[in-house]
# Entry
Amino acid sequence: SAVISQKPSRDICQRGTSLTIQCQVDSQVTMMFWYRQQPGQSLTLIATANQGSEATYESGFVIDKFPISRPNLTFSTLTVSNMSPEDSSIYLCSVRSNLDQPQHFGDGTRLSIL
Amino acid sequence: DAKTTQPPSMDCAEGRAANLPCNHSTISGNEYVYWYRQIHSQGPQYIIHGLKNNETNEMASLIITEDRKSSTLILPHATLRDTAVYYCIVVYSGGGADGLTFGKGTHLIIQP
# Structure
């Protein structure tokens, strides 16, 4: 399965600032996704990162708050904008090589907002 | 995608088989059953998936009832490292182009 690397692995940020999380995959993948996992909760899909076009956001998530880029088939970024303590979560990148393969996950970015 | 129901938590003794149930009574004919687990501080890990036949790999076995309304994930010889949250997810036609939707899962605790 694809090896997924996220940077940073963790960070502590001040409220009102923004942070960009990077996701790098060691092989080309068809689909890339971003998830959020709030403390003690399950994973929630934020958006599907589409190569060369705007991301597709799930209900409750908007581009202004979580802008996503996907410049090629191995890389994507998620920015958490104008952060507040409620944004303290683990943010996970996930990929699917093609429709015949299962989805795989990185180990996430643990974000704390003070 | 069909919804799933799992017990919130289970205990199992180390070395015994861990049997994790999942109900998916509204599953349709072209929906697969996927299992993932999430060990603390890690991302979810794919375990196994199936459509109608029982499946086995190096990690686990998946038993799907004949009517496909429920399934059981079996870890044949549980170890302490199998302590994790296990997610049963029903997915259309091998996955589609949508991201997986996670429920609350079952917190499996392996007791020494």
In short: The two ends of chain A are 36 Å apart (CA to CA). The interface with chain B takes residues 1, 4, 31, 33, 35, 42-45, 48, 92, 94, 96, 99-108 of chain A (CB under 8 Å). The mean pLDDT of chain A is 95. The first strand of chain A starts at residue 4 and ends at 7.
